[in-house]
Amino acid sequence: MRIFLTVAFLVGLSPVIRAQTAPALDAAQVAAAEQRSAGAQASVEQSYAAQKKRVALAVTLEALSPIAGMGAFYAHDTDRATVLAIVSVVAAGAGVGSAFWLIHLDGQHPTGFDQVVQDSEQGTAITVLVTAAIVYLVARISGLALASEATAAFNDTVRQDLGLPPAEPVVPFHALAPGPMFTLRF
Q: Residue ranges of the alpha helices (H) in 2-112?
């Protein structure tokens, strides 16, 4: 009951609010307001154009750099780019190290037990070299895919921060696969 009385008292003390009508604008004032709005929109578009990242540049950086993840660094996706950079550097280092070890073993011609040791070292070096090459190639391919994805995500974030609508309308895609009791929705 006290709450009801308190609310009633506060409502009674509040000033009476009246609806106010907007003053009538003539054609010149309407045109000036539309021009200011168009100028502000053009300013936001220019700001977006200045801040957005180019996908072609990100992919080119990724393709030319010997370390994977440079295109993602350009697009400010540092977490995933750092992981790719570390993986590619470790793979490249392991590959170079095993290649040097194979070169070192090439001039040696041991006999007996030393031959068994050298064969195991050579087999290990070849395995590490092949594994490092595969890991490096996977990191590079992942970097190329990540460069365009990170750039698009960065540009979308800039658009949202500036209050611009999305570049393309989002249309949901639903596919139904034929078959009994088997439906896929994407």
A: 2-13, 27-51, 55-64, 70-74, 78-106
